[in-house]
Structure formats: C-alpha cells, structure tokens
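Class, carefully examine what follows:
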Amino acid sequence: MTDDTPSFPPDGTSRDAEPTLPPHFPGALPAVPAPGRLPFSKPAIWGFVISCVSLFVFGFIGALGAVISARGFRAARQGIARGRGLAIAGMIIGTVGFLYYAVVFILTRFP
C-alpha cells in the first residue's frame, strides 16, 4: 500500500489482530430488569400453572393454585411485580377446577 490509499479498518489496526468485543452486546439480555419494568410475580406464575394442572390431574389442588395466585395478585396490586392478569386467571381456573372436583366427588360418593 502506498501512503495515498486509506488503511482498512479506518482506525489503522491490522486485520490480523483479534477482534475485541464491545462492552455492551446489542440484543443481549440484561442481567437485571430494565429500569421501570417490574419483574414478573413468581406466585402468579406458579398459581396459574398449579391451577391448570388441577384441571387434568388432581382437582383438589385447584384451591392451592387459587391461593397462590391470590398472593401473586396482591403483589401485582401493590406494584411490587407484574402478572395481575395471570394471577386473576389462576384464581378463576383454580376455583372452578376445585368446585367442579368437589361437585363430582360429592355426586359420585353420595348418590
């Protein structure tokens, strides 16, 4: 190369040098939630999952799912976490699943 041609890369480093990574990777997930964005309520998630499982496996644990979802709802209402809708769904599904189980249990045991 002559002195008239620009070097590549423009900063003058050679192509053989190992690339250095930028301090922040675009598109990488942050280790902590972004400011202004609350974390998701774990009781809301677990309550919803337990309530859904109670529909297919053990109907009586629907009450447990509803109670755990209520704790998640309380956290969301107080502004500690997100997941208000998921907690409401967990409470409804858990209650309906438990009531259905209770009615079927009573009707089949006491004809």
Remarks:
- The chain has a mean pLDDT of 83.
- The chain is about 50% helix and 0% strand.
- The two ends are 97 Å apart (CA to CA).
